[in-house]
Amino acid sequence: MDQDLRDIDALVHEEKRLTAMEQQSEAWADGLLAGIEPEILAEAALSTALSELLRDCGEDSALQMLDRIREKVIAGDLDLDRHYH
Q: Do residues 25 and 38 make contact, with C-beta atoms less than 8 angstroms apart?
């Protein structure tokens, strides 16, 4: 039973993650269409995300997230070209 609940939790988490990614991708595309450079979009997105995370969860959570993202960058996990070629 515990495994079933973990499976359901994992599915819900993944669905939320995919929905968030879709919304962020749409916002990114809208920004590009408005003539905003990718670097400006990225800085605004990161600043907003970190500000919200700091407010809601505190400094430790924000720093942990930054560490996870840094590790993904180093590992190439965020390289779309690598995933689609």
A: no
